[in-house]
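Entry, Tuesday afternoon. Goal for today is a structural model of the target with nicotinamide-adenine-dinucleotide bound, before we commit to ordering more compound. Inputs were pasted exactly as handed over by J.K., no edits. I checked the ligand SMILES twice against the vendor sheet because last time a stereocentre got dropped in transcription.
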Amino acid sequence: MAKYLVTGGAGFIGSNIVERLVGLGHDVRVVDNLSTGRLENIENFHNRIEFINADLSDYKTAAESVKGIDYIIHEAAMPSVPLSVQDPVGVNRSIVNTTVNLFKAAVDSGSVKRIVQAASASAYGNSEVLPKNEDMNPEPLSPYAVAKVTQEYYGKAFFHIYGLEVISLRYFNVFGPKQDPGSYYAGVISIFTNTMLQGNAPVIFGDGLTSRDYIYIDDVVDANLSACSCRWPGRSEVINVGCGNRLSLNELVETLNKILGKNLKPVYKDERVGDVKHSQADITRARNILGFNPRVGVEEGLVKLIDWMKK
Ligand SMILES: NC(=O)c1ccc[n+]([C@@H]2O[C@H](COP(=O)([O-])OP(=O)(O)OC[C@H]3O[C@@H](n4cnc5c(N)ncnc54)[C@H](O)[C@@H]3O)[C@@H](O)[C@H]2O)c1
């Protein structure tokens, strides 16, 4: 069985990846500094993994973490646009420094076969082109987005120079269990679901026509595992991971009302400056390279999320 390192493995996406890998019988090491991650995300299987509580912005941590590892799934990051606006230096350290440390340590280790890393649809900035495809020029508009695009470029450079295989998965709006609705970084689905479960009206900034490509966590885990095992595409690819459709905020509230059997009317507030109006992934590349085929529709994913939140 292959040995995996999942960075940020105590976070929302990372812990779901770890859970799947453990279920498949793989050896898994997690490195996480618990800045936004939580131990309760991994408590059900913590005795079946190796856990390193440390910060990857320290090269020594990166070198220790990659020892004997075959595949790295790199999720660690300070995942917030607003926070990156307040603290661009911290976000650069948490995203760019950790990535360079990890890549260099992987090259030095001699054992690492491939790195699959979390990139972000924020790379597309305010472009109005729909759907977004990976050949479009990146237009990162926040320190967070710049750092995520930089990760992709490091992937390309490390393959070009050292032959390190790196695949970057540009996630769209990921949702599902273990996403913390109370956190500063929470996605709109976890906030609305939590709010409406408690019988409260969700707040929509703008007219509610803003739309996003929401992708359920299990499909994101599938994409990561396929990116580890797929035939090397010959270059360090950037690949969209979304469902290829989009849903407006009004439709999201409508769907949640339907599932919850409620009739909560959203409260509309002024549109926030800088919010992108629409987002939708072209997933042709993911289909071709990863055999990616999203299995969970938004409504089905919301039902699963609500079940989990109720527990
Ligand atoms: N959630 C989304 O919709 C989404 C969309 C696009 C991209 N992403 C990317 O996916 C990845 C995972 O995001 P998430 O939503 O699970 O966020 P998360 O905050 O739940 O997970 C990030 C994890 O990284 C850890 N971490 C942060 N800095 C670290 C460091 N220096 N050293 C060690 N660990 C560190 C945190 O403690 C946390 O456990 C991130 O790279 C994020 O940028 C997420």
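The longest strand covers residues 114-120.
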